[in-house]
Specification:
By secondary structure, this protein is α/β, with parallel strands linked by helices. It has two domains: about 55-150, 3-Layer(aba) Sandwich (D-Maltodextrin-Binding Protein, domain 2), CATH 3.40.190; about 170-400, no CATH class. Helices cover about 60% and strands about 5% of the residues. β4 and β5 form a beta hairpin. α8 packs across α9 (about 270-290), α12 runs antiparallel to α13 and α13 (about 355-380) crosses α14.
């Protein structure tokens, strides 16, 4: 019993050391304060620079027929010519813009909007004028406003599936799945960079070789995997919060709408967390084993192999459009890809609970096996100097440690 407690304490020691090796709490606080400060500056600047008016006054020549008001724009008809209006506009600021109109040979009109400088409200004016001229031309053709609406949108489309398990595209499932894939990529890239720097640096400095006298390779690799797993989760959480803040800023500040989190499928989040945890453990164990086999980090061909954990995300993403097909079904149960594919499939169709449980069980069994493999490959790789183990040697150590 005491031996198990000792090993657990040793594993926790390595885990905390590996995590704190890259985690600096003061830097984390400063970086988050900088992000918040930037958001506040943008928010304040948005309000300071907002020089919009309630009503904009637009001058038009007498030959142009426009209503008195359109939304935030008031049109003032003058008897001056277009050229005289430009001259008057240059010398006085009682108008905000001038509208000029030229009839083209094909029956359409060319509209010129004259203003002192480029303003954001000019695009709104263009949209209002375009809508007015569209309705005016439709009236000339004898089309009523309902007929014009039908002409602009002759058909609306919706989908109905006989398979009742398929979720609608309007639901939050697909957006949640895509967000999960993006955050998982952030976690894997974080683990990749830090594991590569940590393990190759320790190998060149022969740090790990000295620690083998008091800590077993398996405990050492367990601590590294768990430490980097914590870092990946931290990076994913930070990225998720940053994305939500950016979404809130866009919706509330720029668009003036209420903040709504209905884009998230909350019932799916527990499954996402469990599969993500197991997937990160599997990917981190794989990358740690490969990194230990790298002798020269600047010229080793094995560096590219560490990017293989990205493949499940890519193949799962390209099968999103066919959630009931054989491809996504296979990926959902295949342990090397299920940590991405099964949550994706769950976000797109309703599934009986035994299916994700079966997939998760197979994934956990693979993680248990991968942990032992990572420990053996880590021991072999970290004790070899001057040359890298061949793929054949690594394949042998994946099965058994002591091979001739």
């Amino acid at each position: 019993m005491s031996n198990k407690i000792s090993q657990a304490k040793q594993t926790w020691l390595v885990t905390s050391w590996e995590f704190m090796h890259f985690f600096k709490w003061k830097q984390e606080i400063v970086s988050k304060l900088i992000i918040v400060s930037i958001g506040l500056v943008v928010f304040l600047w948005q309000n300071i620079k907002d020089d919009s008016q309630a009503i904009y006054t637009i001058a038009v020549p007498a030959e142009i027929s426009l209503p008195e008001t359109l939304s935030h724009f008031r049109f003032v008809t003058t008897n001056s010519s277009a050229q005289d209006l430009k001259t008057e506009f240059t010398n006085e600021a009682s108008w905000d813009a001038i509208v000029q109109e030229v009839n083209l040979p094909n029956g359409s009109k060319k509209i010129t909007i004259v203003s002192h400088d480029k303003q954001s409200w000019l695009e709104q004016l263009q949209q209002q004028l375009l809508q007015h001229y569209t309705q005016d031309y439709a009236a000339q053709l004898g089309l009523a406003e309902p007929q014009l609406a039908v002409l602009n949108s002759p058909a609306s489309f919706s989908y109905e599936y006989l398979d009742q398990s398929i979720k609608t595209d309007e639901g939050p499932g697909k957006a949640t799945a895509i967000g999960m894939i993006i955050l998982l990529a952030v976690g894997i890239f974080t683990s990749f960079g830090q594991l590569f720097a940590s393990i190759t640096g320790e190998k060149q400095q022969r740090v790990t070789e000295q620690l083998y006298s008091c800590i077993s390779p398996q405990i050492w690799i367990d601590g590294k995997i768990l430490g980097q797993l914590c870092h990946s989760l931290k990076a994913m959480t930070t990225s998720g919060i940053t994305a939500l803040l950016g979404f809130a800023f866009t919706v509330v500040i720029l668009q003036g709408k209420s903040f709504d989190l209905s884009i998230i499928d909350w019932s799916l989040l527990p499954w996402l967390f469990v599969f993500t945890l197991a997937g990160l453990f599997l990917c981190t164990a794989f990358m740690a084993a490969i990194a230990a086999a790298i002798d020269d980090p600047n010229h080793s061909a094995k560096t590219s192999i560490m990017l293989l954990p990205l493949v499940p995300m890519i193949v799962s993403f390209i099968t999103l459009d066919n959630p009931t097909g054989w491809a996504l079904s296979f990926l959902s149960y295949f342990p090397l890809t299920s940590f991405v594919a099964m949550p994706v499939k769950m976000s797109l169709i309703d599934m009986p609970i035994w299916q994700p449980l079966l997939s998760l069980t197979l994934l956990v069994l693979l993680c248990v096996w991968a942990r032992g493999v990572a420990g053996r490959l880590f021991k072999m790789g970290m004790t070899m100097y001057g040359k890298e183990p061949s793929m054949k040697d690594m394949a042998k150590w994946m099965v058994k440690e002591n091979v001739s």
